[in-house]
Design brief:
343 residues, mainly beta, 16-stranded antiparallel beta barrel
Length: 343
């Protein structure tokens, strides 16, 4: 028997064993492939550029084992993927990576690296679903930028069972000997029929120098309130956020958006403003259309105008991943078309 045939048989046996193990432990491979081609123009100084940019693309493994009595073991390993280059992040499972126990009556406890509450609440409060040129996170993310803390590494998260139409999340993050990183967060999620209302709060230790204050660490507290309502003929969304640091004026974000279903697609509109002290405001208008080829596949187009205050360097997502940072006070216009497939 040739060596190639032996290797083929061995590989086939390994895959068969792997598939059997996956089936027995309830492991699922899933993901999203999303990319588009974009054209952008900038002011002061003027610049034009074409990019092929990956939107939020990822793949992951998740699974659970039934331990009996309503108790199950769970895990999730999820990695970001840049479709424009094929690269993944230096931290391979950089989106979420955790292990936990889930009980039908008591809730779920997870240990590892997880999205913060603002990601879950803002995602349900955005017509663009945190994607494309209208993504809500453009105007609210990053504690050092006077926004929210969107990722909790070295953390413990508790997710309550649903009580009526409400469930909650609570996070604690370990600093592991560092001067910063003693963070905690809370979230509440209410969903009833066409209505959604959510609250997200996080308290994060960040470097004082990042916000122009003395001291190795200061505490940034961010409160977010989001909502949505489906009228059938249209859906409306809203998200408000306030970041507070002692000794500084508050930074506020407000995003309002809507989706209008038409046939096999929907039109989208988003208006937002990030008000930060010291002429660091940013305002954005976004328009979009998505055409659904199936439940898992869509093609889309979007357009956005971003106006920065004199000290603001905010940039549009997703082209921010493939472009030079905005110059302070620089306005950005962009248009793009793309495709998304879920698996």
């Amino acid at each position: 028997m040739s060596q190639k045939i032996q290797h083929g048989i061995a590989l086939g046996a390994l895959l068969a064993c792997s598939c059997t193990a996956f089936a027995q432990s309830g492991v699922t491979l899933y993901g999203r492939a999303d990319a588009g081609v974009f054209y952008q123009s900038r002011s002061n100084p003027g610049a034009n550029q074409w990019t092929v940019s990956s939107d939020t693309s990822y793949f992951g493994l998740r699974g659970q084992e039934d331990l009996g009595g309503g108790l199950s073991a769970t895990f999730k390993l999820e990695s970001q993927l840049d479709l424009s280059s094929g690269n993944s992040s230096a931290a391979f499972f950089n989106r979420e990576a955790y292990v936990g126990l889930s009980d039908r009556r008591l809730g779920t406890l997870q240990l590892g690296s997880m999205w913060g509450p603002s990601v879950w609440i803002s995602g349900k409060s955005d017509a663009f679903g945190r994607a494309q040129l209208g993504a809500v996170q453009t105007l609210l993310q990053g504690a050092n930028n006077r926004g929210n803390t969107f990722k909790f590494d070295n953390s413990l998260q508790y997710i309550s069972p649903k009580i009526g139409n409400v469930f909650g999340r609570a996070y604690v993050q370990a600093a592991e000997g560092a001067d910063i990183g003693r963070n905690y967060a809370l979230a509440l999620d209410y969903t009833s029929g066409p209505a959604f209302l959510g609250l997200a709060f996080d308290s994060a230790q960040i470097p004082g120098a990042a916000v122009g204050l003395p001291g190795s660490a200061v505490r940034a507290k961010t409160l977010g309130i989001g909502g949505a309502y489906n009228f059938g003929v249209a859906r409306i969304y809203g998200y408000y956020q306030r970041n507070s640091i002692a000794g500084l004026d508050d930074a506020n974000s407000l995003n309002a958006s809507a989706a209008l279903p038409v046939g096999s697609g929907e039109f989208r509109l988003a208006l937002g403003r990030w008000s930060r002290p010291g002429d660091a405001d940013a305002r954005r208008l976004a328009l979009g259309y998505a055409h659904f080829l199936s439940k898992r596949t869509q093609v889309y187009g979007s357009f956005a105008v971003l106006k920065n205050g004199g000290r603001s360097t905010t940039m549009l997502f997703p082209i921010s991943q493939d472009s030079a940072p905005a110059v302070a006070g620089q306005d950005v216009k962009a248009v793009g078309v793309g495709m998304r497939h879920m698996f």
